[in-house]
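Need residues for this backbone.
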């Protein structure tokens, strides 16, 4: 054994409350730490509920994080669809008439359009749109400069 009988008697005679109260966790401070614990538990509960609500919000248009402009413009592509139960033939016919499964949406002219795009194609689409937009702005700016120079020289 590491302790002899005298060592155990010395440990029993120590007044732990005296030493613990010096660092602020003695018997007199228990109420304070209990209140601190309650406050922390309530705070973490509120933050946890806000985080959970933000991730699984039933209001798809109202979450706590802002949405980028590109996502707002293309939000109609990601509309939520309610799928019918497999045995319900009437609902299934109505579902197919409205457009059916994602990826087999029938356009206004009766042509089958593919609407499921992976994220890589989506990013390429956004980049090409931005590039085309910037190219258009540059072209208009250059055309206006040429027109201005010609007008300064006297041509109309």
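Answer:
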């Amino acid at each position: 054994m590491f302790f002899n009988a005298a060592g155990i008697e010395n440990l029993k005679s120590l007044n732990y409350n005296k030493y613990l109260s010096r660092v602020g966790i003695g018997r007199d401070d228990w109420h304070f730490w209990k209140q601190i614990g309650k406050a922390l538990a309530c705070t973490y509960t509120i933050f946890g509920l806000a985080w959970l609500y933000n991730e699984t919000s039933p209001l798809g248009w109202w979450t706590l994080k802002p949405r980028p402009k590109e996502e707002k413009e293309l939000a109609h592509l990601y509309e939520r669809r309610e799928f019918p139960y497999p045995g319900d033939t009437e609902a299934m016919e109505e579902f197919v008439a409205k457009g059916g499964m994602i990826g087999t949406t029938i356009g206004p002219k009766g042509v089958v359009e593919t609407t499921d795009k992976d994220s890589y194609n989506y990013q390429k689409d956004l980049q090409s749109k931005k590039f085309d937009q910037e190219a258009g702005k540059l072209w208009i700016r250059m055309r206006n400069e040429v027109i201005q120079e010609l007008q300064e020289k006297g041509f109309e």
